[in-house]
Each structure stands twice: as C-alpha cells, then as structure tokens.
Amino acid sequence: MLDIRKLRLLRELAHRQTIAAVAEALNYTPSAVSQQLTALEREAGVPLLERGGRRVTLTPAAHTLVGHTESILAILEQATADLARGRAELTGTLRIGTFPTAIRTILAPALVDLSTAHPGLELMVTELDPVLAPGALRAETLDIALVQDYDYVPVDDDAALDAEPFLEEIVYLAEPAAFAEPGPRPTPLALSARHENPWIAGTPGTLCHTMTVRACQAAGFTPRIRHHADDFGAVLELVAAGAGVALVPELGARTPPATVALTPLDTRRRTRIAYRRGTADHPAIRAARTALRHSATAAREGWASAH
HTH lysR-type domain: from which residue to which, for each copy (predicted)? Predict the structure, then answer.
C-alpha cells in the first residue's frame, strides 16, 4: 500500500521542482524528503526520480502517480467536508490568505460577518503575494485564498485546487496630474508615452512586478524601474511626489492623492477564490465564500454610489 504522506511529497516535488523547496514548504529537512521519496520508489516498484547533480526530475511513472495523488487527496478532503457537515456548529480554525488591498476593502467586512454568524470559528488571516497562495493551499498552511492573474501574466490551473471567479478590476496608469493627457488612450499608447520616465513596481518576483514589466514590453519598451513598493497606497504617494509612474489596479486606486491622475487601461486584473479540491462544500469554506461575495458586492455598491 502506498503511503499518502510520501505521495504528497512527490506531488509537491512536481510543483516546486527541488527537494529543498519541498522541505521548506512542508517543514521537513531535505534529507528527510529524500529518504521518504526513496522509500516511495521502493513501495512503487518503479523508478520515480531521475537524479542529476542537485536537480531531480520526475519519470513518466511519477507523473502518473502524481495525477492519482491529486484525486486521492481530493477524496480525503471531501470526506472531511462530509463529516464537518454533520456538526451542529462551525468550530476549528479557518486560515485565509489574501493580498493587502483586499484586506481593507473586502476581507475586513467579511471577517466581521463570519465572526458574528459563526463565533466558534477561529479566523486566521495571512497577507501574501497571490503568486504564493497556491503553494500555501497545497501545503495546508491556508484553507482558502484570493489568487490573481493579470492580462500579460496568465496563471496555469493547479490540479490540486478549485477556483471560482470573484472580481475583475481595471488597471490604471498612475502618473503626476501634470503629465496626464486628456481623453482615453489605448494601453500601448498610454504606456509608450512613459518609456523615458522612471517606474515604480512591486518587489521582483511578485505578480504586480511581472505585470508591469510585461505590459510595458508589450507596448514596445522595458520599464526603467527605480522604486519597488508592494503597498499601492505607498506607490501612489511616490507617484504624487514625482518619483515615477506606475500601474495600479482598481482596488489600490480608490482614493488617490489629488495630484495623481489615473488613466484607465484595457489591462485587467482578475481575482478568484481558491481552495483545495474537495473542500468546496466544507461548511467553513462555504461560509467564507458567501461572506467574501457579500462583502465584495457591498464594496462595489459603495464605490458606485460615491461616483
């Protein structure tokens, strides 16, 4: 009988590519991961890994086994959800992952609703870049998370997760008001006009940083990024100070400084609610999904009435 814990390590290796990354994500030592994977190969009776220096690659048999592992884990999650539905009230811990602008605009009201409706549920929020959320969900350090993709930065589906559409936002070019030109401008024209300006972008490796670089490259130039900031409030203050121009999604651009002009582009950011396969009907996950949607609807209505 194959050991589900070892199978989970193999699944993570398929995603993270290195034994060191798997060990860090799941709180193992690298040697322990290697030993467990070697034991799994013995149990399977076929080679699962091809080793070359510090790198390992999965054999075709290992990829087949990973596919079965995803199905097995989803069935176990569904079993847990079925048992939870038999309880009289929601208890335990719900770990929620989100990005900074969603905390103050959407998540905070949702937490109030969840705490009021389910006082026995312990809520834990982690702020992280959306690019890290799928791995945290697979590693079970999160139970539900807001994940994103942008035009120019598509994100591959993860077989371990289910995700549902949640929010779509306009992306704006934020620039000092003195720079702004009247009238709508298509994305390439608006961006190419700023090819000589310094740019402000997120930390390298974040989704926002990648989006800025690729959007500018699609407009025909590579941005000269001078400043890095992950909080869009800080980004807008830097723009107001004349430090550069930036791309800012709608949630981060609700209250710009008076000296900042926002030009809507044809670029979009899409947010989805993600959770592990098999957990959609878990009472805690279902309650969180409902609360998030109610909060997003209320926020949208508030923004519409304010303009």
Answer: 2-59
Cα distance between residue 279 and residue 121, in whole Å: 16
**pTM for the structure as a whole:** 0.86
Residue 48, CB-side half-sphere exposure with 13 Å CA sphere: 23
**Comma-separated ranges of CATH 1.10.10.10 domains in the chain:** 4-83
Burial annotation 154-192 (CB, 10 A radius, 16+ → b, else e): ebeebbbbbbeebbebbbbbbbbeebbeeeebebeebbe
In three-state secondary structure terms, 134 is: helix
Q: Are 303 and 126 in contact (CB under 8 A)?
A: no
Q: What are the per-10-residue average pLDDT scores of the chain (307 residues)?
A: 90 90 90 92 91 82 94 94 87 93 90 94 93 93 94 88 94 86 66 93 92 94 96 94 95 90 92 96 95 90 63
As a whole number of angstroms, the distance between CA 223 and CA 201 comes to 10
| CATH 3.40.190.290 segments of the chain | 90-307
Given the candidates 1.10.260.40, 1.20.140.10, 3.40.190.290, 3.40.1130.10, the CATH classification of the domain at 90-307 is 3.40.190.290
Measured in degrees and rounded to the nearest 5, phi and psi for residue 152 equal 80, -15
* Predicted pLDDT of residue 288: 96
CATH 1.10.10.10 fits 4-83, yes or no: yes
Contact 9, 22 (CB under 8 A): yes
Closest CA to 228 of 220, 219, 238: 238
